[in-house]
Amino acid sequence: MTLELRFARVIAAPVEKVFAAFTSPAGQVAFYGQDDPGWIVRSECDLRVGGAWTVAFGSSPSELYRHHHVFEVIEPPHRLLLATMEIRLDGTSFASTIEFTFEDQNGNTLMTMVQTGFPTEELRDEHRRGVPNAFTRLERHLARSRPD
C-alpha cells in the first residue's frame, strides 16, 4: 500500500513568477524554512532533468532532516516531478515521488503538491502538518520579492 499527500493553494501571483520563485535558491530555502530564528536550512540545487536538489533542515546542526530530490521532469512553468529520498533524524529513510504543478487561475496560480510513497500514515500525517507552512513561507517570499 502506498499513501499519498495532496495539498493545493491559490497563490496571488502569475504562474511564471511562482514557478521562478519556487525554483530559485531563496524560494527553496523559504519552502523548507521555519519562523524559529535558530532554524537551519541548507539547500543546493542543480535544476535540470537528472540534477539533484539536496536540502538539510532542522533545529540544530546535529539534528537535520535530509531530502535528496532528483528532477525527473521539468516543464517550466507548469510542472516538476521529483524522485525523493528522505533521511529522518533517527537515520531511517524512505523513497517517495513528489509532483508540483502550477496552473493559471485568472492571473493567480493554483500550486499543487502530490507526494506518494509514504510507508506509514504517521509519516504522511506529519508531512500534512508541515506542508501548509511551506506554502505560506513561499507566498511570503513572493510578496517580499515583488516590485512596488
Write the layout of secondary structure elements.
Layout: E1 3-11, H1 15-22, H2 25-32, E2 40-45, E3 52-60, E4 63-75, E5 79-87, E6 93-105, E7 108-118, H3 121-145
Antiparallel strand pairs: 1-7, 2-3, 3-4, 4-5, 5-6, 6-7
Helix pairs in contact: 2-3
Which strand order does the major sheet show? 1-7-6-5-4-3-2
Oligomer category: single chain
Give me the CATH fold name.
Answer: Alpha-D-Glucose-1,6-Bisphosphate, Chain A, domain 4
Helix-strand makeup class: alpha+beta
Q: Rounded to an integer, what's the Rg over CA atoms?
A: 15 Å
First-last Cα distance: 49 Å
The helix fraction, in percent, is: 25-40%
Provide the CATH superfamily. START domain
**Approximate shape:** globular
What is the chain-wise order of helices and strands? EHHEEEEEEH
Average pLDDT reading: 95
What's the total helix number?
Answer: 3
Spans with pLDDT under 50 lasting ≥5 residues?
none
Question: How would you portray this structure in words?
Answer:
- The protein is α+β, with helices and mostly antiparallel strands and about 150 residues long.
- It is about 30% helix and about 45% strand.
- A seven-stranded antiparallel β-sheet has the order 1-7-6-5-4-3-2, covered by helices on one side.
- A hairpin with a 5-residue loop joins β5 and β6 (about 95-105).
- The longest helix is centred in the last third of the chain and has 25 residues, at about 120-145.
- The radius of gyration is 15 Å and the shape is globular.
- The termini are far apart.
- The mean pLDDT is about 95.
